[in-house]
Amino acid sequence: MKAVVWHGKEDVRVDNVPDPIIQEPTDAIVRITSTAICGSDLHLYSKLSPLMREGDIIGHEPMGIVEEVGREVEHISPGDRVVIPFNISCGDCYFCDQDLYSQCETTRDTGKLAQGVNLLGRGRGASLFGYTHVYGAVPGGQAEYLRVPQAHFGPIKVPEGPADERFLYLSDVLPTSWQAVAYADVPEGGTVGIWGLGPIGQMSARIALHQGAGRVIGIDRVAERLAMASRHGVQTLDFSAVENVRDVILDLTDGRGLDAAIDAVGMEASGSAVGSLLQTTKLQLDKATALRAAMSSIRRGGTLSLSGVYAGPIQAFPLGDLFDMQIQIRMGQANVRQWTDEIIPLLTDEDVLGVEDLKTHTMPLEDAPLGYEIFQKKQDGAIKCVLKP
Ligand SMILES: NC(=O)c1ccc[n+]([C@@H]2O[C@H](COP(=O)([O-])OP(=O)(O)OC[C@H]3O[C@@H](n4cnc5c(N)ncnc54)[C@H](O)[C@@H]3O)[C@@H](O)[C@H]2O)c1
Ligand SMILES: [Zn+2]
Ligand SMILES: [Zn+2]
C-alpha cells in the first residue's frame, strides 16, 4: 500500500510499504478514506525529529471503512464507517476507567527512550498513532490501510450519508477543542482569549461560543485564519500589528484581563525577530511566546487551558507570578473518547459547529509532501488539509 513516510527533517514522502495485517485479537484493519494533517504533525516534521526514525508512517486523524476485525472486536464489523481516535486506549484500565484515555496504562510506551524523555522520571502517556518513538512507534493513518490496535474500544462508528469531513475531526480536532474549552471553564457570558487560529483554535472558539461564552478574542497573524474566525463570531486580533497583545487585551477587558485563555499554538510559536534569531541559534528561549502572552493577559483568579503541545522545559516560567495571581492551569493530550458522545449529536443532523467550514485543501495521498509544506508555511490559505488515499 501507499503511506506517508518520514524520511528526515521536513522530508516526508509517499512510499510503497507492506499492507498491515491483524496481529492481535483486539486489532482491526481499516481502509482509510480521509486522513488529515494536524498541527501536531508539524512538530514531527521539524522540531521532534530526534524522536523519529526514517521509515516511520505518520498521521493520526484518519477515518474509513472497516476491512477486517480480530475475534475480540465486537462493536464494529467489516463495512462499517468509522473514525479512529488519535490516542490508543484500552477502555478498561485504571486511567481509562476515569476517562483519562490519553494516559491509558495498557498502551503506554515503557521503552527506555520514553522513560528517558520525562524530566520527572515518569515516562510517557498512552500510545498515539504515527507519533514518534516515545508514544509507542505505532504506524500512523496517512496511508491506504491502518492497523488499529485496541479496536475493541477505540473506533467510533458514524452514520452513512454526510461527507467524511463532517465526522473526520472526531479523531482529534473536535475532542481536543472540546477539552480545551472544558478545561478553560469560561463563566457564562465571560471572555476567553484563544491564541492560535489553526484548526484547534478555530474549533475551540466555536465551541466556546456554542457553550455560552460572551466574547471570544482570537489571536493570530495569518489573514485567512483571522478571517475564518471572524466569520464565526470571533473578535480577532492580529498580534503582528500591535506592540503588545497584553495591553490591547487589558484595554478590552476593563484593565483586568481575560476570564480564561486557551493556548492553541504550542511550541511552534512565532514571535519577534529576536525570538526567531534565538530559535535558529537553538536557544529556543521564545518557544513559549504565545504562552507568555496568554499568561500575561488573564485576570486574577482566571484559568489557563493548554492544548498546544510543549515538550521539555520552558525557561523563565513565571511560577511565582501565576501563584500570586491565583491562575489555574489545566492541560494535556485530549482524552478523545471522553468527549465524542457529547459532540456527535452536533454533527449528525445539522452542522451546528460549522465543521464543513474548516478544510481548505483536499489532496490525493500522493500530494502529502505538498500538503505538509503549505500547511507549515501557511501558504495558499492552508488551514486544514485532508488527504484522500
Ligand atoms: N492537546 C492535544 O491533544 C492536541 C491535539 C491536536 C493538536 N494539538 C496542538 O494544538 C496546537 C495547534 O494545532 P493546530 O492544528 O491548530 O496547528 P496550527 O499550526 O495550524 O495552528 C497554530 C496557529 O498558531 C499561530 N501562532 C503562531 N505563533 C503565535 C503567537 N505567538 N500568538 C498567536 N498565534 C500564534 C499560527 O499562525 C497558527 O495559525 C499544536 O501545538 C498542536 O500540536 C494538541
Ligand atoms: Zn492531530
Ligand atoms: Zn486503558
Automatic annotation (TrEMBL):
Signal peptide: none annotated. This is Alcohol dehydrogenase catalytic domain-containing protein. Belongs to the zinc-containing alcohol dehydrogenase family. InterPro entries: ADH-like_C, ADH-like_N, ADH_Zn_CS, GroES-like_sf, NAD(P)-bd_dom_sf. The lineage of its organism: Bacteria, Bacillati, Actinomycetota, Rubrobacteria, Rubrobacterales. Residues 25-156 form the Alcohol dehydrogenase-like N-terminal domain. Its cofactor is Zn(2+). Residues 199-270 form the Alcohol dehydrogenase-like C-terminal domain. GO terms for molecular function: oxidoreductase activity; zinc ion binding. SUPFAM superfamilies: GroES-like, NAD(P)-binding Rossmann-fold domains. The keyword Metal-binding applies. PANTHER family: DEHYDROGENASE, ZINC-CONTAINING, PUTATIVE (AFU_ORTHOLOGUE AFUA_2G02810)-RELATED, ZINC-TYPE ALCOHOL DEHYDROGENASE-LIKE. Keywords: Metal-binding, Oxidoreductase, Zinc. Pfam families: ADH_N, ADH_zinc_N. It comes from Rubrobacter tropicus.
